[in-house]
Amino acid sequence: MRNLIQNPDQLAILQEDPDLIPWAVEEFLRYASPVYHFRRTTTKDTEVGGVKIKAGQKVVPFFASGNRDEAVFDRGDVMDVRRFPNEHMTFGRGGAHMCLGNALARIELRVMFEDLISRVDKVEITGEVDFLRSNFVHGIKRMPVKVSLR
């Protein structure tokens, strides 16, 4: 929500065309990944960015970095609710470590934003945002806002 407030042009796009909300949800997940990183163990020798990695080595993919990789995402540092396709890493990329709650999270976000976008004219942050202090999870503990309804 904070990123949508900070990008009022994107809110206006969704207000004009709420059918974009499913794509917007994917963009919100890409742009502000709720998890910073996850350690993995390689199963085979590979190479990433010119660096050789042997099977059995520990690696730590940082989702925010991968989700803004300019080789994958045009203008990766820009939030664009019309971005499609959006092959972000937020829930993993399949397999045994794919987030089991990904479908529920997407539904919850879609329903929340559909309801919010249909009712809200403008949202403003009115005070200091209190971020969760964590090396693993990105989140907001408190964010005072002023909401103007349609």
TrEMBL record:
Molecular-function GO term, any one? cholest-4-en-3-one 26-monooxygenase activity
Which SUPFAM superfamilies does the UniProt entry name for this protein? Cytochrome P450 (SSF48264)
Task: List the InterPro entries.
Answer: Cyt_P450, Cyt_P450_B, Cyt_P450_sf
Q: Please cite one Gene Ontology biological process associated with this protein.
A: cholesterol catabolic process
- State the coiled-coil residue ranges: none
Pfam families, per database record = p450 (PF00067)
Record Gene3D superfamilies: Cytochrome P450
Give the family this protein belongs to, as stated in its UniProt record: Belongs to the cytochrome P450 family.
PANTHER family, A to Z: BIOTIN BIOSYNTHESIS CYTOCHROME P450, P450, PUTATIVE (EUROFUNG)-RELATED
Its protein name is: Unannotated protein
Please give the organism: freshwater metagenome
